[in-house]
């Protein structure tokens, strides 16, 4: 007898699908590939480290809804995401006006 997927199973599947899509976009232009946990850790630390091009690509090439879905799936708040975005923008000079419009109010409110 087959069992129905639970909400947590569906959540895991949705999060995995977001990870796969985000990583396909972020890794496409580069020989070196970043994994979801490393990307999430770099965002959480608000420091792209040795992954500047990948983090910048995340913020500039990934649709804002996927950026937020990835962050949510990895337990990152929008405030932390805003902090990581603006640090990455200052470091790389890469920007995403659509994403920035949603993140700017959060960065201004952050302590």
Describe the structure concisely:
This protein has 111 residues and is an all-alpha fold. It has 6 helices and no strands. The protein has helices at 7-27, 36-45, 52-61, 64-73, 78-92, 97-109.
Mind explaining what this structure looks like?
With 111 residues, the protein is an all-alpha fold. The chain has one domain (7-109). Helix content is 71%, strand content 0%. The chain has six helices and no strands. The protein has helices at residues 7-27, 36-45, 52-61, 64-73, 78-92, 97-109. Helix 1 (7-27) crosses helix 4 (64-73). It is globular. The protein starts with 6 loop residues before the first helix and ends with a helix. Mean pLDDT is 86; it is low at 5-10.
Element layout with pairings:
Elements: H1 7-27, H2 36-45, H3 52-61, H4 64-73, H5 78-92, H6 97-109
Helix pairs in contact: 1-3, 1-4, 2-5, 3-5, 5-6
DSSP helix fraction: over 70%
Overall mean pLDDT: 86
Spatial separation of the terminal alpha carbons: 53 Å
Number of helices: 6
**In the residues, how many domains can be counted?**
1
Q: Report the C-alpha radius of gyration, rounded.
A: 15 Å
The count of DSSP E runs of length 2 or more, i.e. the number of strands, is: 0
Largest beta sheet, briefly? none
What letter string, H or E per element, gives the SSE order?
Answer: HHHHHH
Report the portion of residues in β strands.
under 5%
Keywords, please?
111 residues; mainly alpha; 6 helices; globular
């Amino acid at each position: 007898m087959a069992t129905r997927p639970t909400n947590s199973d569906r959540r895991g599947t949705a999060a995995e699908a977001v990870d796969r899509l985000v990583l396909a976009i972020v890794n496409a232009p580069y020989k070196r590939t970043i994994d979801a946990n490393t990307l999430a850790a770099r965002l959480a630390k608000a420091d792209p480290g040795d992954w500047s091009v990948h983090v910048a690509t995340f913020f500039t090439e990934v649709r804002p809804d996927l950026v937020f879905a990835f962050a949510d799936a990895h337990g990152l708040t929008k405030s932390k995401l805003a902090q990581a975005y603006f640090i990455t923008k200052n470091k790389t000079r890469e920007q995403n006006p659509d994403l920035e419009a949603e993140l700017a109010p959060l960065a201004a409110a952050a302590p």
